[in-house]
C-alpha cells in the first residue's frame, strides 16, 4: 500500500513544503510501485554489509550496530509488503530508512547512513541486479544453445538449399544451419561474459561522488557483497552506468541474432517454401480464414527484438546529454528499461528454445528443392576448373550460360546434361570440355556437394566436429556461470551469518 502525507517534507529540513502532487503521482509513486519490491533484498544486503563494516571500523558502537542488524533481518523476514510506501519520502531508500527508524529509533537507525549516500547505494544495487540478470541470461543461453546443438547433430545429413539474398545459393544441411546459429549465440554469450568483470566491482563507499572522510573499509563491504574488488574512483563509481549499457548492447545484438533466426523460419514455414513445419501447439489461426496456421511465435521473437533495440536506443539518447556525475537522467531514466530488457530476453530465449525443439524439417522437400533449383551450379564450375583446365572465370561463364538455357527451356538443375555443358563451353572457349555424364550428374548432386565441403562447411563430419567444439565451449561457460552464481550465493549466506552474529550481540549484552 502506498500512502501520502500532507505535512512538510518527510526527508529534509531544507525543504519546507511537501512535494507537489504531480511529482508524487508521475515520478515517485510509479518508481516505488515498480522498483521497491524488486530492490528490497538488495537494499537489505547493502545495509547489512554497511553496518557490519561500520561496526568493525568502530564507527558505530556494538549496541546500535546490533540493534540495526536485528531490525534489518526482521524487515527481510517480513518482506517488502510490510512497509507502507509514501511517495512524499521520494524513493525506496527513504521509505526503507523510515521503517527502520520506526523500529529502532532515530538515533540508532539514523547511524546506518554514516559514510554513504543514496548515490553509491543506487550504484551498488544496479551492479547487484546486473550480476543476477547476467547469471540468468547465460543460463538460458546455455539451454537454447544445447537444444540447437542437439538438433544440429540430429539433422546433420538433411540436405537443403542454402540462401544468399534469399535466392538459392549452395547446398547445405539443416544441421549445418543450426550449428551456425549456435555459433552466433555462443558469441552473444561471450559478450555477456565479457561484461561480468567490469560490472562485478563494488561502488559502495563512494558516497555522493567524493568519497568520505570516515575511515571506512571499502574492500570489506565488497567482500560481504560478493564483489572481488571496488570501483576505485569515487566519482566514476557513482557517475557511470556503462556496465549496464554494455549488457544492454549485448542484449540488443542477441535480440538481432534471435530475430534473424526467426526470420529464416518465418520464410521457410510459408506455403511457398514449405521447408519447415511446426506443430499446431505453437501456431495461431485466423478468426475468419479457416485454413490459416500462423507462426505467432516467430512474429513474437521478431517483434520483441524491435522493442529491445528501441530500449537500448532510448538509454543511449538519455545518457548522452547527462552530466558526468550522479543525476536522475544519467542513472535512473537512462537505465529504466534495463531490467525489462533482461527479463524480456530470458522470455524470448525460452520461446526460441521452443521453436528449435519443435521445428521439423520437410526433408523430402528440402532435398528436392536443392536438386531442382540450381544451388549446385558452383560445384559444376569447380569441377570444370579441376578436370578441364579452365580458369574459374571462364567456368563461371560456361555454367551461367547452361543455367540460362535450362531456365529458358523450363528444365530443373537435375535435368542438365553433357550436351548443354559442351555447347556453352564451345561458345565460351571454343571447345567442348569432354566431361562424362556421370561427372556432370555427380557435381550437380546436392548431397555430393555437401559431403565435399569438409573445411568448416556442411559435410556431416565437419558439422559433427563443429558441434563437438561448440559443446566444449558451452560446458565451460555453463560451469563458469555456475561457479560465479555459487560465489555470490555463498557470499550472501556468509553476509547473513555475520549479520545474525552481530544481531545476537544485543541479546547477549546484560
From TrEMBL:
<dbReference type="InterPro" id="IPR008948">
    <property type="entry name" value="L-Aspartase-like"/>
</dbReference>
<dbReference type="InterPro" id="IPR000362">
    <property type="entry name" value="Fumarate_lyase_fam"/>
</dbReference>
<keyword id="KW-0028">Amino-acid biosynthesis</keyword>
<dbReference type="GO" id="GO:0004056">
    <property type="term" value="F:argininosuccinate lyase activity"/>
</dbReference>
<dbReference type="InterPro" id="IPR029419">
    <property type="entry name" value="Arg_succ_lyase_C"/>
</dbReference>
<protein>
    <recommendedName>
        <fullName>Argininosuccinate lyase</fullName>
        <ecNumber>4.3.2.1</ecNumber>
    </recommendedName>
</protein>
<dbReference type="GO" id="GO:0005829">
    <property type="term" value="C:cytosol"/>
</dbReference>
<comment type="pathway">
    <text>Amino-acid biosynthesis; L-arginine biosynthesis; L-arginine from L-ornithine and carbamoyl phosphate: step 3/3.</text>
</comment>
<dbReference type="InterPro" id="IPR009049">
    <property type="entry name" value="Argininosuccinate_lyase"/>
</dbReference>
<comment type="similarity">
    <text>Belongs to the lyase 1 family. Argininosuccinate lyase subfamily.</text>
</comment>
<dbReference type="Pfam" id="PF00206">
    <property type="entry name" value="Lyase_1"/>
</dbReference>
<feature type="domain" description="Fumarate lyase N-terminal">
    <location>
        <begin position="55"/>
        <end position="310"/>
    </location>
</feature>
<dbReference type="InterPro" id="IPR024083">
    <property type="entry name" value="Fumarase/histidase_N"/>
</dbReference>
<dbReference type="Pfam" id="PF14698">
    <property type="entry name" value="ASL_C2"/>
</dbReference>
<feature type="domain" description="Argininosuccinate lyase C-terminal">
    <location>
        <begin position="374"/>
        <end position="450"/>
    </location>
</feature>
<keyword id="KW-0456">Lyase</keyword>
<dbReference type="InterPro" id="IPR022761">
    <property type="entry name" value="Fumarate_lyase_N"/>
</dbReference>
<keyword id="KW-0963">Cytoplasm</keyword>
<keyword id="KW-0055">Arginine biosynthesis</keyword>
<dbReference type="GO" id="GO:0042450">
    <property type="term" value="P:L-arginine biosynthetic process via ornithine"/>
</dbReference>
Amino acid at each position: 500500500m502506498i500512502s501520502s502525507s500532507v505535512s512538510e517534507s518527510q526527508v529534509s529540513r531544507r525543504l519546507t513544503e511537501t512535494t507537489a502532487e504531480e511529482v508524487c503521482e508521475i515520478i515517485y509513486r510509479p518508481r516505488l510501485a515498480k522498483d521497491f519490491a524488486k530492490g528490497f533484498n538488495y537494499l537489505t544486503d547493502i545495509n547489512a554489509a554497511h553496518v557490519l563494516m561500520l561496526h568493525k571500523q568502530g564507527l558505530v558502537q556494538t549496541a546500535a550496530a546490533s540493534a540495526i542488524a536485528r531490525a534489518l533481518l526482521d524487515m527481510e523476514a517480513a518482506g517488502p509488503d510490510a512497509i507502507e510506501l509514501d511517495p512524499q519520502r521520494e524513493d525506496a531508500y527513504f521509505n526503507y530508512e523510515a521503517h527502520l527508524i520506526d523500529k529502532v529509533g532515530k538515533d540508532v537507525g539514523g547511524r546506518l547512513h554514516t559514510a554513504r549516500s543514496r548515490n553509491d547505494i543506487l550504484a551498488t544495487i544496479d551492479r547487484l541486479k546486473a550480476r543476477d540478470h547476467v547469471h540468468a541470461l547465460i543460463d538460458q543461453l546455455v539451454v537454447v544453445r544445447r537444444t540447437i546443438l542437439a538438433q544440429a547433430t540430429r539433422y546433420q545429413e538433411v540436405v537443403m538449399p542454402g540462401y544468399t539474398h534469399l535466392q538459392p545459393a549452395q547446398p547445405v544441411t539443416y544441421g549445418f544451419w543450426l550449428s551456425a546459429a549456435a555459433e552466433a549465440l555462443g558469441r552473444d554469450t561471450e559478450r555477456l561474459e565479457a561484461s561480468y568483470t567490469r560490472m562485478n566491482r563494488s561502488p559502495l563507499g563512494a558516497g555522493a561522488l567524493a568519497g568520505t572522510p570516515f575511515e571506512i573499509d571499502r574492500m570489506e563491504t565488497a567482500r560481504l557483497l560478493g564483489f572481488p574488488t571496488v570501483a576505485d574512483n569515487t566519482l566514476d563509481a557513482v557517475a557511470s552506468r556503462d556496465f549496464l549499457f554494455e549488457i544492454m548492447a549485448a542484449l540488443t545484438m542477441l535480440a538481432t541474432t534471435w530475430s534473424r533466426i526467426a526470420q529464416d523460419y518465418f520464410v521457410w514455414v510459408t506455403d511457398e517454401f514449405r521447408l519447415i513445419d511446426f506443430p499446431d501447439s505453437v501456431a495461431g489461426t485466423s478468426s475468419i480464414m479457416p485454413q490459416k496456421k500462423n507462426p505467432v511465435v516467430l512474429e513474437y521473437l521478431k517483434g520483441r527484438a524491435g522493442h529491445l533495440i528501441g530500449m537500448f536506443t532510448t538509454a543511449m539518447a538519455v545518457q548522452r546529454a547527462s552530466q558526468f556525475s550522479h543525476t536522475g537522467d544519467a542513472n535512473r531514466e537512462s537505465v529504466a528499461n534495463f531490467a525489462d530488457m533482461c527479463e524480456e530476453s530470458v522470455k524470448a530465449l525460452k520461446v526460441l528454445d521452443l521453436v528449435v525443439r519443435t521445428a521439423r524439417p520437410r526433408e523430402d522437400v528440402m532435398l528436392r528443392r536443392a536438386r531442382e533449383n540450381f544451388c549446385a551450379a558452383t560445384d559444376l564450375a569447380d569441377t570444370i576448373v579441376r578436370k578441364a583446365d579452365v580458369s574459374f572465370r571462364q567456368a563461371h561463364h560456361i555454367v551461367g550460360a547452361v543455367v540460362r538455357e535450362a531456365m529458358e527451356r523450363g528444365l530443373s538443375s537435375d535435368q542438365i546434361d553433357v550436351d548443354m555443358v559442351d555447347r556453352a563451353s564451345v561458345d565460351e572457349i571454343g571447345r567442348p570440355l569432354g566431361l562424362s555424364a556421370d561427372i556432370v550428374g555427380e557435381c550437380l548432386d546436392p548431397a555430393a556437394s555437401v559431403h565435399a565441403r569438409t573445411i568448416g562447411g556442411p559435410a556431416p563430419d565437419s558439422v559433427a566436429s563443429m558441434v563437438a567444439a561448440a559443446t566444449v565451449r558451452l560446458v565451460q561457460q555453463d560451469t563458469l556461470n555456475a561457479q560465479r552464481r555459487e560465489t555470490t550465493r555463498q557470499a550472501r549466506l556468509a553476509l547473513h551469518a555475520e549479520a545474525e552474529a552481530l544481531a545476537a550481540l544485543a541479546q547477549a549484552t546484560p
